[in-house]
């Protein structure tokens, strides 16, 4: 099955998209993989072509077009659109899909769907996260280069004219998905209905959160095993995953919405809200409801109501004694698993850097309102934190609430200034890295270009070495534009400047993290002081991961 993904980018560095397509990147951190010399490592296999541009000078040509029409100059403008078409891994085995064939399919798809735009089309055959599936990246400049004939899918007259931006609307995305489905059916490739809502809707954000959480959990479990302990939890669950599991377990034994609602609250501490015919669920660790539509079609009212009816019919057809025993066993098992899950998650996220913690608001703590014993623990914990706060104030010599606020404002200013300094160093480092990249590109292809200059038949020589000559010319043009005196920079000096900036970045990060943590600590003190004095706090406390009691 082919899946279409769209990413809108505000990054003004078009070369970053080129580097991602050509060189190896870490899929978990999305950062380039460097060799022992600090250089980028080319991908083992890729196929790249350009439409209305040379693929190796895509960045330069996009900047020139933007300058011609005075577009994409502000920070908030979308500079490029990145579409990813991922094919089913079974297509390579069962339907003979190759990288070359996928590239040809997507070249035609790009010409038809994004006419008049500068576009990069690059096929990777290694798959994402070692999945092994063939996928194609389509990167287009958001600004159209040529006037084209108006197509049926274009919603506005300007969508066919040069110098206007690419518009992505809901109807246009539907057209793109339908076109992709038609192509896959024509090419006899595996395909699902991309326009039908998913039974389980897992967004990219949830997918990556799951991967990061699982990686941290695995690292913690390895430490526990090294210490001779047995981990109690081996699989990480996101909040949406927990809700899906709780809904599935509760819906499997519920015969009405009331039973379903009661079981969710009693066994899983999940609240159900019905608003305008839509189900919404509240995770125990959240303050905002998640709608069933965000979880998938199997978690919306229509599907669950049908499931309740089926459960009622099945219950009437079976013996009551068997049903009661089965429901009790499933409820006890689910309740035990959920209880262990909640306890383990609370323990895993309880740790914070500072010894001083926020005073818990009992009115906003759902668990404390439902459990009197837990509420008493919270009260005792609040007393301890209030005492720690008083000691902190005395040790640091804060005589009045205003002096504490003045100190917080001062540290906040330092944190903001250090963040700007860090950002400035990062920007300078990015520019130097870009100069090093193009200088290396210039030097690597210089010998070929010198032979080209001396060649008698320059046209034939250019046809034999198009990539080397194009890379050399684009690098030379970039370096001359960056140089004030027209001289090319020295690689030795550039690397020395990079080392200097890396050291400055390290010091700037250290300073920023110091003031950031100090600001968080003073914010906690201010919040706790307001609670002690019974005053309404003027700002929200820094978000902490848990209010569980040791």
Automatic annotation (TrEMBL):
Listed name of the protein: Rlx protein
Organism this protein belongs to: Petralouisia muris
Organism lineage: Bacteria, Bacillati, Bacillota, Clostridia, Lachnospirales
